[in-house]
Write a structure and sequence with these properties.
heterotrimer, A alpha+beta, B mainly alpha, C alpha/beta, B: mainly alpha, 3 domains, 6 helices, 0% strand, extended, C: alpha/beta, Rossmann fold, 2 domains, elongated
């Protein structure tokens, strides 16, 4: 056993002993989750009872509750969930030390879960809530969506997008793979048509309009007249010059030499300042995310922090 | 034929979207096209799921290095789908729904699919992104060097904004004389951060935005006119 | 001596930096050090607009984020919803992210049901708020909503037909909203709401976004965006304003998740500044050493 293996064995042992003590030796426990039973149809809490004569409730849902709530019961699934979530969090963090099997395991799980999640969501939200409701409203009402209007009529026009969508699987059969281009063309055409107008309006015309600014700004003074607003004037001048210089840098039809070269260099500087700010703001976001994960480990799981 | 029909489809539907924008009577046609888009795009993306399965099944059957992880991926993929589609643990929420099978919301709190989201999906993806905080710190120490004018500008701006984003910025006002009564304290770094945001950052991003907008318009036009067919792939 | 220290720093294992970062974030969490913020004009504008709108105004709450950005945006979503709840606006929750639906449900549970679900005038589902759920189709879903919400989705997230909900009376599209409030983590999000709904239809919109996305949205403010709340700092600013205006109960720490993340933020920023300065100090020292011993 080398030094590194010894070190990690001791660390794991200490960690396990600590978790065992925290779980069984303290009142707080680790990741303990409690719930109350609620009648889904009435929204009323069902008190825990051992009385066999109590009326059975058909639809029970579980709501999170505090441990000291008299109606709270311990939840195995949620407690196990917190533990699994914590261990998976540690698996991912283990990558910081070195790539390892725990990290790869968590990574494999997330690839499968993400793809499955996407398929399930779209199955219920699009294929059932949009397609089945249109093609077979009675089936949808009976099996999935009871509030579908009773007088809803089937709209067989929706067979077209379903067939078009299914044609994408032709790509898996070499002989008819060309048919797989049709749905792609529909998606690309719709996006291109929409974007052409909306980008031109919001990101071109309106942005040009926002850049056409007065270079000398006067504002109302305390005496009722108007006075030069120096700071706003400087801001406007900087904006106009910066936008023009950046656009010059992006204009590749003219060689960047002489005056054009100098202006485009100014454009590069403006972009560098912009990227510097982006870097700082990105750092801010990532640190917040790390804070959230550590709050989960030390608050929700280990229970060290109680607000 | 293999490319003419898709080019025609793209042109027709694209032109419909444009014309309907200016012509309200065509709005119902545009709404139908948008509805179809959602359905076609959703079904088309199922191909992604099929490809994922094929890729990992091949890895397992060839017993490539790390095939065990492919098995884990496939297992978690199919378990998620089964739990979500069968609505494991979902209970109907209203009296009206009780008599119907599968009538409760698929992501109901306490259900199997909710559990997967809450305790598998959410912790893993958020921790993966949180890892970047560490790598950003390491990069700041090792690679963020003032080597030329551009790098200096990048670095100095990042430093100013990093200070300006927290209340540590108030330290910079300690070196100034105290303000007159009723006048708010002037914080130099807050002023500079704000100035950078309102001018250089806005201008730089605006230029990028204008450039992208022109690029999108040109590409869209080429697609609608049938000049750009790259999205259809090579000849088959 | 100095040369040996420089060699050590040059060879410093990055895992020490990782450890320093973990400590910088963890210590304020364990010591519960929070941080307040002075509100900035783009955040104040959104706050003032929600204050200014008359009671019962329709507000579309577009929650386009998932767990990867929930650290910044969930506290924001809570603060926006709390403010709208206090002002008794009618809320229409929606998301165009498939992973965003649980974020809406969590917000509704944490704010609407917890803070406004009881009392004299409780918020009633279908009357005062509705969860429209997930709309598939990315940006195209926004386009659909701006012409006809029912075309985008005929039922709410619970499967109830929209026509059966009193809150939907008189609502055909996003144009019927007094304001769009969007919590945006990327694509599709704030940029698409501006492009596909707010700018062409002239609907007031304010975006709360992640720090990463904020620079992309700066050019829209103030002409196309009414307000812009940026990252965790923006969330703290909003919580600060809410606490100042409605101290009972929003000055309470338990109602201020962003405030509690502010302390860790401050210390981690200090570490980052220190690392950049130290890294450049090493770089200059190396250059000096190379000039001495070429």
């Amino acid at each position: 056993m080398n030094r590194e293996t010894r070190f990690w064995t001791v660390m794991f042992l200490c960690g396990s002993l600590f978790l065992a003590y925290q779980s069984f030796g303290t009142n707080r426990g680790v990741g303990q989750q409690f719930v109350v039973r609620v009648d889904a149809t009435t929204g009323k809490i069902i008190p825990p009872t051992t009385d066999a004569a109590a009326p059975a409730v058909k639809t029970v849902i579980y709501e999170p509750a505090a441990k000291d709530d008299p109606e709270a019961i311990w939840s195995f699934s949620r407690t196990a969930g917190i533990w699994i979530a914590a261990l998976l969090t540690l698996c991912i963090f283990s990558y910081l030390y070195r790539d390892n099997v725990c990290y790869k395991l968590a990574e494999s799980i997330i690839v499968g879960v993400s793809a499955g999640y996407w398929i399930v969501t779209n199955y219920w939200e699009v294929l059932i809530a949009k397609v089945l409701v249109k093609l077979a409203p009675d089936v949808a009402r009976y099996a999935f969506l009871p509030d579908t209007p009773a007088d809803a009529k089937a709209d067989y026009l929706y067979v077209v997008p379903v067939v078009l969508g299914c044609m994408v699987f032709c790509r898996l059969i070499p002989k008819i793979s060309w048919m797989g281009r049709w749905p792609l063309a529909f998606v690309v055409g719709t996006t291109a048509g929409l974007k052409l107008i909306l980008f031109l309006n919001a990101d071109f015309v309106r942005q040009v309009r926002s850049t056409v600014l007065p270079l000398v700004v006067f504002s109302a003074s305390a005496s009722g007249g108007s006075e030069l607003d120096l700071i706003q004037s400087i801001k406007n001048i900087v904006i106009v010059i910066s936008v023009l210089s950046c656009l010059t840098y992006f204009y590749f039809s003219v060689e960047h030499k002489g005056l054009v070269g100098r202006i485009s260099r100014l454009g590069i500087w403006v972009l560098m300042i912009s990227f510097g700010a982006s870097f700082a703001l990105t750092v801010m976001g990532r640190i917040t995310l790390l804070t959230m994960r550590l709050q989960f480990l030390f608050d929700d799981w280990l229970g060290f922090v109680r607000i | 034929m293999s490319k003419t029909v898709p080019v025609l489809i793209a042109s027709l539907v694209g032109c419909l979207m444009i014309v309907a924008y200016f012509s309200p009577p065509l709005l119902p046609a545009r709404q139908i096209a948008e509805d179809w888009f959602t359905i076609v795009a959703t079904i088309a993306m199922l191909l992604g799921g099929a490809n994922l399965c094929l890729h990992h099944v091949k890895k397992i059957s060839d017993q490539e290095a790390g095939w065990g992880f492919s098995a884990v991926t496939l297992l978690s993929f199919f378990i998620t789908i089964a739990v979500g589609i069968l609505k494991v643990g979902v209970v109907p929420e209203s009296e009206q729904q009780v008599k119907f099978a599968w009538s409760g919301p698929f992501q109901q709190e306490g259900s199997g699919f909710w559990w997967i989201y809450q305790y598998l999906f959410s912790p893993i993806v958020s921790t993966m992104f949180a890892l970047l905080a560490f790598y950003v710190a390491s990069a700041a120490f090792r690679a963020f060097r003032a080597k030329n004018v551009e790098a200096i500008l990048l670095l100095v701006t990042a430093l100013i904004v990093l200070v300006g984003q927290t209340r540590d910025r108030e330290i910079t006002s300690m070196f100034l004389p105290p303000p007159a009564e009723g006048v708010p304290t002037f914080i130099p770094i807050a002023f500079v951060t704000n100035f950078i945001r309102e001018t250089f950052v806005t201008a730089g991003q605006r230029a990028i935005m204008i450039g992208i907008a022109l690029g999108v318009v040109a590409t869209s036009l080429r697609i609608l006119l049938g000049l750009d067919r790259s999205y259809l792939g090579g000849d088959e | 001596m100095t040369s040996r220290l420089l060699d050590k720093l040059n060879m410093l294992d990055r895992r020490w930096i990782f450890l320093a970062m973990a400590m910088a974030v963890l210590a304020p969490i364990l010591l519960q050090i929070g941080s307040d913020e002075t509100p900035s004009p783009p955040t104040i504008k959104l706050f003032d607009e929600i204050e200014r709108l008359p009671e019962g105004s329709r507000i579309l709450m577009a929650m386009d984020f998932d767990p990867t950005s929930a650290a910044e945006l969930y506290p924001m979503a809570l603060a926006f919803t709390r403010h709208c709840g206090v002002r008794r606006h009618k809320l229409f929750f929606v998301t165009i992210w498939p992973t965003g639906k649980p974020m809406i449900e969590s917000t509704i549970k944490g704010v609407i049901q917890a803070d406004f679900g009881s009392g004299d005038r409780p918020y009633v589902y279908g009357v005062d708020y509705v969860n429209l759920g997930y709309l598939a189709g990315d940006a195209v879903a926004i386009s659909q909503m701006s012409s006809d919400i029912r075309k985008a989705r005929p039922q709410d997230a619970r499967g109830t037909n929209l026509d059966q909900l009193p809150i939907m009376t008189g609502v055909t599209s996003v144009k019927d909203m007094a304001l769009i409030v969007n919590a945006s983590a990327g694509f599709p999000g704030g940029k698409e709401w501006v492009q596909y709904a707010a700018t062409p239809q002239n609907i007031p919109i304010a975006v709360g976004c992640t720090g990463v996305q904020s620079t992309q949205l700066f050019p829209y403010y103030p002409d196309q965006l009414l307000g812009l709340v940026t990252g965790i700092r923006g969330a703290i600013e909003y919580e600060t304003m809410l606490a100042a205006k409605y101290p009972n109960p929003y000055a309470d720490r338990s109602k201020r998740p962003a405030f509690l993340r502010g302390g860790a933020q401050r210390w981690a920023h200090r570490l980052m500044i220190g690392l950049i300065v130290l890294g450049n100090g090493i770089h200059l020292a190396n250059r000096y050493r190379r000039t001495l011993h070429p």
